[in-house]
Amino acid sequence: MLSVEQAIAAILAEVEPRSPVDVELGDAIGLTLTADVVSDADSPPFDKSQMDGFAVRSADTGDSARSLQVVEEVTAGRVPQETVQPGTATRIMTGVRLPAGADAVVPIEQCDFTEGSDTVIVRCGVTSGTFVIPRGQSMSQGETVLRAGTRLFAPQLGLLAELGHAQVTVRPRPMVGVLATGDELVPIGQIPGEGQIRNSNQTMLTAQASQAGAAPQPLGIARDEREHLKSKISEGLECDVFCLSGGVSAGTRDLVPSELQAAGVREVFHKVEMKPGKPIWFGKLDAARAADGRPRWIFGLPGNPVSSMVCFELFVRTAIRRLTGIAPATPQPIRAKLVAEHQTRGDRPTFSPARLKRTDTGAVVHPIDWQGSFDLRATADANAMIRFPAGERVYAIGEQVTVHQW
Ligand code: AMP
Ligand code: MG
């Protein structure tokens, strides 16, 4: 059986980053730039006022109050027409280009001025450049402002918009199909009958896919019956990544691995040494076997909700990061101090839901009392999971443990 590290390495060996494409800027959130972005202009494009006030010649101001003649008022989006001559000033708003002749701005709060009047009393002295943002201060033409590999969130997208990039070159968001399997499942809007439960995995895995930067595609429920499963699998194989939940263990109706293989998917691994999540299955539909020549990656996640969730975080997320060029693609656990004693038992490394908190003296983590891989109620209190090594041992308060944040 593979270790978690071996399973992650096997995924990385099978998944290659997607080829870059141009997408609309608004659709690029969370994706990764594939080329440096160079500014094609100075920003700001002209010397501009940082304040609402008066553009003046600094030499006209001093320790005592001075009266200046107002030659013009320039509001946002307009361009000064008049030169500021000695003894004059221009009423100017924030962001407006500094008029010729002026070299500083006096904020309105430092002036005595009645709107509409043709004189202003400037109460304080300013030096050349006061409250003026010089042309190109933020960036100059030809400067590299974003590097290839940068992930795009609000600030980066805002900058690209400032530069006029209506489209941006990124590794595209993979489509992630999510199919729940199980005869016991009913849609979440239904009242479960005898022996039935709601399909909570679909909503949970769909949310995880979105959070990981993929485009989820919910595919409903497949019955534990070969013909139905076969048709749902062929739907799922349209997606770049296909996650199935349930049907990968040793039950007589666990048909997922055999039906995936019947559909041409090559098994890469089945079962990983971990708890929960041991029965996980991973395979690839190789490019040569796909009708359109594009490979697909398929994860058979164990049906118990916490198993599914943990396997998604460790394995599916790694594949999505690799596809979209996020580096590093592998999970990046941190170390944190236990704030409650914890007993482990068992022969496999265990991922336990936990509450991680940052404090002034470092990260601390509180294991959550959970009842097992079905226990979403307890897991909903968690924001992380602790990875405990295999073996029976009591972990004391204050010990450092390995934590994966969600
Ligand atoms: P399986 O891996 O198919 O043996 O499923 C294990 C257990 O996980 C089942 O007995 C269900 O209780 C639960 N389970 C399976 N699929 C789902 C699902 N989509 N939503 C919630 N629970 C599920
Ligand atoms: Mg099942």
What features would you describe in this structure?
The chain is α+β, with helices and mostly antiparallel strands. The protein has 4 domains: 4-18 and 172-323, MoaB/Mog-like domain (Molybdenum Cofactor Biosythetic Enzyme, Chain A); 23-41 and 141-171, Molybdopterin biosynthesis moea protein, domain 2 (Alpha-Beta Complex), CATH 3.90.105; 48-133, Molybdopterin biosynthesis moea protein, domain 3 (Molybdopterin biosynthesis moeA protein, domain 3, Beta Complex), CATH 2.170.190; 334-405, Beta-clip, CATH 2.40.340.10. Helices cover 18% and strands 30% of the residues. The chain has helices spanning 4-14, 154-162, 200-211, 226-236, 256-262, 305-324, 376-379; strands spanning 21-24, 37-38, 48-49, 53-56, 66-74, 88-92, 104-107, 111-112, 119-122, 132-133, 144-146, 167-170, 175-181, 185-186, 197-198, 215-222, 241-245, 266-270, 281-285, 296-301, 334-338, 342-344, 350-359, 362-367, 384-388, 393-395, 400-405. A hairpin with a 6-residue loop joins strand 8 and strand 9. The protein is elongated, with a radius of gyration of 31 Å. Bound molecules: adenosine monophosphate and magnesium ion (MG). Residues 181-182, 224, 246-247, 303 line the site of magnesium ion (MG). Magnesium ion binds at residues 181-182, 224, 246-247, 303.
